[in-house]
Design goal:
Strand content: 25-35%
CATH topology of the largest domain: Alpha-Beta Plaits
Number of strands: 15
Number of helices: 7
CATH architecture of the largest domain: 2-Layer Sandwich
Oligomer: single chain
Order of helices and strands: HHEEEEEHEEHEHEEEEHEEEH
Distance between the termini: 20 Å
Radius of gyration: 20 Å
CATH superfamily of the largest domain: Alpha-L RNA-binding motif
Length: about 230
């Protein structure tokens, strides 16, 4: 297994962060600084920044109904981080993120191999949200969201056009939105484009995995069928 994937699949950090450790020469293999391209063999001993890397004996897949206020980071220096909140006895990390004030479904795992697959925008994985706004919804507002709007993209430091998406009104102030993009604070920015403010945002589905009746702040293991769907 390639070194960066070996480190990320242990749950220590993301593959991108593993690359940074390797470039900074903070990764040792059998006591020697690792080359940038290296394939780990069965008996190799790997250390990252002084931490011994061990592969988990079993892959862990969890879905959490994240409350508002919990921050989707594995960094122990961040107050209210998601790892402290869930307090799982083994090393796991969140797949992607939800804004601090956003509630709902987020996956946590120790399997780094699924992260890139789920995070690649070109794979068009659906994510479904329930959105409540501060004033009555109009047909024009729904149409604009459905067709796509232009919002600021801080990663590109430019404006991006959102893709057409499914938007279904549920009541005067609430709608269901299904996205296959992952722009920064996308739903909030899309609503703000039409002078609406999001007052409550909840993610209820990623691909085939649904939040269902899982209580706020509670978590459960994924079923075998759900895991198979992630890897398919």
């Amino acid at each position: 297994m390639r070194l960066n994937l070996y480190i990320s699949s242990s749950g220590f950090c993301s593959r991108r962060q593993a690359e940074r450790y390797i470039t900074a020469e903070k990764v040792l293999v059998n006591g020697e600084i690792a080359p940038h391209v290296y394939f780990v063999e069965e008996n190799d001993q790997v250390e990252v920044d002084g931490h011994k890397i061990k592969q988990p004996t079993q892959d862990i897949y969890i879905v959490l109904n994240k409350p508002s206020g919990v921050i989707c980071t594995a960094s122990p220096t961040i107050v209210n981080n998601i790892i402290d909140f869930i307090s799982f006895p083994e090393r796991i990390f969140p797949v992607g993120r939800l804004d601090k004030e956003t509630e709902g479904l987020i996956l946590l795992t120790n399997d780094g191999s699924i992260v890139n697959e789920l995070m690649k925008e070109e794979n068009n994985h659906e994510k479904e949200y329930i959105v409540k706004v501060d004033k009555k919804i109009t047909d024009t507002f729904i149409t604009n969201l459905s067709n796509g709007v232009t919002i600021y993209n801080p990663r590109k430091k430019d404006f991006s056009r959102t893709n057409p998406c499914s938007v279904i009104q549920l009541d005067d102030y609430t709608f269901r939105m299904t996205l296959s993009q992952g722009l920064n604070r996308q739903i909030r920015r899309m609503c703000r484009h039409s002078q609406y403010t999001v007052t409550h945002l909840q993610r209820v589905r990623i691909k085939h995995i649904r939040l269902g009746s899982l209580g706020l702040g509670q978590w459960r293991y994924l079923t075998e069928d759900e895991i198979a769907g992630l890897k398919r």
